[in-house]
Design brief:
Elements: E1 19-25, E2 31-37, E3 44-49, E4 56-57, E5 64-68, E6 74-78, E7 84-88, E8 95-96, E9 104-109, E10 115-120, E11 125-131, E12 137-143, E13 151-159, E14 166-172
Antiparallel strand pairs: 1-2, 2-3, 3-4, 5-6, 6-7, 7-8, 9-10, 10-11, 11-12, 13-14
């Protein structure tokens, strides 16, 4: 569903035969990219022009954990074996991204499109910048929660393109232990 932020009528984007799991805009705003799956099939990334036309699969089945490059030409994602790749949005062979660990989550491209921000779900929260050209990585930020009691993992991290501002969510499980004596 497309809802205007000003004047205009709402519209829909037809996604026949697939269930959309997450979506985002291309940088120029003329296409939408989304992760979707056909019934009984693994997910993949599709691109669809807003002017019309059918959705076009742009990754193999099983790809998730995706981010769109600032120029809209690539999608960074992981295959079913947790290997990271850059998939060309307009078709072509994917480019392997060695050095990204299986447990790391792809957050987004940096503002220049030359690197990716990643995070590890473990405590403390570590955000890494991965250089696409060299495969080098560096710790970009480390965030410690003031009260880590019951924090099991980080679920999501959202970053600005320069990586200086962020928001995150985490899962916390707290419980209480009671000792009861004298029961008969």
């Amino acid at each position: 569903m497309l809802l205007p932020t000003g004047a205009g009528a709402p519209g829909t984007i037809p996604t026949p035969g697939v269930e959309v799991q997450g979506a985002g805009w291309s940088p120029e705003g003329k296409r939408v990219l989304y992760v979707a799956a056909s019934p009984g099939r693994p997910s993949r990334v599709y691109v669809q022009d807003l002017a019309g036309g059918a959705p076009r699969a742009r990754t193999p089945e099983g790809v998730g954990g995706w981010a769109v490059s600032p120029d809209g030409k690539f999608v960074a994602g992981r295959d079913e074996d947790q290997r990271a790749f850059l998939f060309p949005v307009d078709g072509g062979e994917p480019l392997s991204l060695p050095g990204i660990a299986p447990g790391e989550v792809i957050v987004r491209f940096d503002g220049a499109g030359t690197g990716l921000f990643l995070f590890s779900r473990a405590l403390p929260l570590r955000i890494f910048r991965y250089d696409i050209g060299s495969g080098r990585r560096e710790t970009w930020s480390e965030i410690t929660i003031a009260d880590p009691a019951g924090v099991e993992q980080f679920n999501r991290v959202v970053l600005t393109p320069d990586g200086k501002s962020y928001a995150y969510t985490f899962f916390r499980a707290l419980s209480s232990l009671y000792v009861v004596q004298g029961l008969k």
